[in-house]
Each structure stands twice: as C-alpha cells, then as structure tokens.
Fold this protein.
Amino acid sequence: MGRHTKLSVNINKFATIRNARGGNNPDLIQVAKDCEAFGAEGITVHPRPDERHVRKADVYALKEIVTTEFNIEGYPSPEFISLIHDIKPEQVTLVPDPPDALTSNAGWDTIKYEDYLKSIIEDLKKSAGRVSIFLEANPDLLSTAKSTGADRIELYTEPYAIQYASDKTSAISPFKETAKLAGELGLGVNAGHDLSLENLNFLTSQLPELQEVSIGHALVCDALYHGLQNTIQMYLSELDTMPR
Ligand code: PXP
C-alpha cells in the first residue's frame, strides 16, 4: 500500500502579487477555493505584522471559506495569539522569526525556549485544533519539543533542498533521524521550505512519518508555466509513495 502526504498550499505569494497593484487581482479567496477544488488538502498563510502579503483581513475572510485544513503560521506575538483565538484554525505553526524577516530561516531552540513555548502552546490549544512548531532537523531538540506540548513539528527543509542536488543521501540523513525519533515520541511530522517538484518525492519516500507539507514559492513559480490546476496535481502525485 502506498502512503500519501498531505499538501497544504501556502498562498502568501498570491497575496504578494495582488498587493503589487493595490487592487484585488488575483482574488485571494478565489485562489484558496480553486486550490481546494484542484486537490489541495490544506491552505496555509503566514500573516506578518507589516501585511506585505496576507493581511489580517484576509485571514478572517479565508476562515469563512476554507473547507480543508486552515494552517496559520507565525511568530507568537500578542496580536498573532489573539488572531488565533478569533479564527480557531485546524492548525497553528509557530515560527521563531522576528517581524522584519524576509522569510523563516531558522527553527525553534526548544531547549532555550521550552518554558516559553509551553505556556504559549497551552494557551493556543484552547483555540487551535493542533499546534506545530518549526524545527531544524536535529534529534537533540526533540525531547524538549515534546515537553512543550506541541502536537507536531514542522521540519525546516531549506538545508535539505540546498544539498539535494549535490548529495541527496547526506541531505536526507538528519531529516530521517529526526522524523523517526519524533514518531517514537508521539510527535506528528510536517515539513516545509523550499520544497519543489524536484526534491519532494525523495523526501516523502524517505520519511514514512511525514504527514503534511506546506509549499508556496516553488508551487507558484511552477503554476506560471503549467497552470494552477496542473501544478497542484503534479505536486499531489509527488506526494504519493506509489505512482497514482
Ligand atoms: N513553512 C514555513 C514555516 C514558512 O515560513 C514557509 C514560507 O512562508 C513555508 C513553509 C513555505 O516555504 P516555500 O514558500 O519555500 O515553499
């Protein structure tokens, strides 16, 4: 039997294009509906304080129409926490990036921030179906990750994506080790950052624990050539360990 890892489409970049002209094209709500109609199994957003892509108002509007899994990523500022209590999404993914970061470029230091994360996660769980924390592939971070109360980890895959072209076996090795131990500790495993049609299937096939990926940048770039419907279908195929 094959396995299937779920695809959550990160729609930030569609909002970046919309914001470039100040109007409502593309319409983010229609984009989210279409992603779901084309097979996406979740919609991810990462509202940032400067609203440079997805805005707070978008998050409220998306809440009304997302029928799959709504995943909201972000740094747990007081504003973010209150947004989560309003929206009550299926999943929250906590990232440690400062407000002015271009994109998330590090995972949590769960040893240093164990108590901080524990209190935030306890609070967020009143409203979110599940809490995931963004983590580098390092098994040493897992026992404290578990004691924060997080349900899942999201593996930060940029280092994998960078090394994939030159040495995919070495690139996957810390991810395999971390995902396996996470599974043994009862933590679910997601992954994201720089995943693409090139590197996705190897990741999925090598990590039996992998439940969900969130993908934005490469998917939007591929959609420029193949169209959104074809592109989502192509990503879904890569996420099956057996061909469809
Ligand atoms: N996961 C997290 C925590 C992120 O911050 C991002 C980028 O917003 C992604 C996944 C998706 O990364 P990409 O756009 O490279 O697919």
